[in-house]
Amino acid sequence: MQKTTQNDPVLTNTPFRIGALAKMTGIPVSTLRIWEVRHHAFSPSKTTGKHRLYSQEDVHKAGLLKELSRQGHAISTIALLEAAALERLQQPQKVLSRPPEAPKQPAGTVSLAVIGAGIADRVASGKFIRQFLGSSLRVTDSFADLAQADAAGFREPPQILLVKVNTLHDSIRKQIQALALKQGVAHTVVVYSFAQEAVVQAMRMAGTLVRRGPVSDYELSDLISSVLLVDTAKSLGGIHADSLIPPRKYSDDTLSRVAGISSNMLCECPRHVAELIAQLASFEQYSQECLNKNEEDAHLHAHLHAISGSARALFERALEMVAQHENIPLMADFEPTGGRIG
After folding, report:
1. What pLDDT is recorded for position 263?
2. Is residue 103 one of the residues assigned to a domain?
3. Rounded CA gap, 20 and 12, in Å?
4. DSSP letter string over 7-69?
5. CATH of the domain at 49
6. How far is CA 207 from the centre of its chain?
7. 215 found inside a domain
8. Same domain assignment for residues 212 and 253
9. 160-200 tens-digit pLDDT
10. First vs last C-alpha separation in the chain
11. Are residues 215 and 149 in the same domain?
12. How far, in whole angstroms, is CA 303 from its chain's centroid?
């Protein structure tokens, strides 16, 4: 049995630093920092030297967040809750002998609950229904407003919650987030007409996709598509989930050239995509070298090499789509067999 001492921070009210918090909870320091900075899970005090100091309450809350996230709760939806509310969330999970089965639906089908007058008819219309990156939509529930949704309840937990409101203020934000948490929604999409910028930013920080209306059917379908996993076999022709990882197509010189080309796009996606490919290719090579050197961790490095190679191939296909959109000349530097051209 592990012995404790008088100086053990668990047994005292003495504040302690993030390293001690990580050690006691088994949560990596990097994860704790994300929970604090991005999701505002903790509000530690600071020393004169700007070091963060955490309390015993923070230890307890971190443990609850860890357990609930393992049960499938999105950290963005539970980080702001007090420990008492987190404990209530945890209690129903303990009495279940096994987790509830998700409603069965055809492969490639995404379930969607819709809140807001008018928008449900748009989603259900023949004009709107289309393939979303290899998936089709199935509307599980439709409500006129948030009050009706909260009072009536959902027939089944949807994967996506689509909400249309005229005004988005803080009380509406809290209603939407509470409803999404209650139903275990994976993704929430909110379309609004008027809102305070602070409320919009708070929702985005919590992981909600927010867009000011009016939005066309095409824009709305893009919003929903953006939270779906890409089906590589159907959407990125030539790259299949059960095929070998294709060899690298573009050299560092080509990627550097693309990254340096001025773009007509308001964002800098061409540069970012090119830089991501270079980074993924470097890690792919690095993980292969680790695989060759370290037999003890061969399984891990083989997995890392496969993941990085697959991601690099997907981003190469994405770069080709961007290049075509921007009329950027792009020629492969390597043969399909992996040899360099020229």
Report:
1. 56
2. no
3. 13
4. T-GGGS---B-HHHHHHHHT--HHHHHHHHHTT-----EE-TT--EEB-HHHHHHHHHHHHHH
5. 1.10.1660.10
6. 8
7. yes
8. no
9. 899 999 999 999 999 999 898 888 887 888 999 999 888 98
10. 67
11. yes
12. 21
pLDDT value, residue 162: 92
Is the domain of 155 the same as that of 220?
Answer: yes
Predicted local confidence at residue 235, as pLDDT? 47
220 CB-near residues (< 8 Å, 6+ apart): 119, 122, 123, 128, 191
The residues of the chain scoring below 50 in pLDDT are 1-11, 93-103, 105-107, 130-134, 231-235, 241-242, 336-338
Q: Which residues pair with 138 in a beta bridge?
A: 111
pLDDT at 114: 92
- What's the domain range around 68? 11-95
Domain assignment present for residue 181? The answer is yes
Separation between Cα atoms, residue 207 and residue 226, nearest integer Å: 13
The predicted pLDDT at position 293 comes to 57
CATH of the domain at 147: 3.40.50.2300
Phi and psi at residue 141, in whole multiples of 5°?
-145, 150
**Residues 124 and 212 grouped into a single domain:** yes
- The closest alpha carbon to 190, from 244, 119, 253, belongs to 119
Residue 81 has which token pair? Answer: 């809750």
Whether the Cβ atoms of residue 79 and residue 62 lie closer than 8 Å to each other: no
DSSP letter (8 states) at residue 76: H
In angstroms, the CA 115 to CA 165 distance is 8
**Residue 113 shares a structural domain with residue 213:** yes
Question: Are 26 and 117 within one domain?
Answer: no
Helical (H) or strand (E) element with 187: strand 187-195
What single DSSP character describes residue 334? Answer: B
The one-letter amino acid code at 138 reads R
Q: Based on the structure, what is the number of domains in the chain?
A: 3
pLDDT at residue 244, rounded to an integer: 63
Q: Looking at the domain assignment, is residue 156 inside a domain?
A: yes
Q: Do residue 114 and residue 224 come from a single domain?
A: yes
**3-state class (DSSP) for residue 192:** strand
Question: 113 and 210: one domain?
Answer: yes
Are the CB atoms for 146 and 179 separated by under 8 Å? Answer: yes
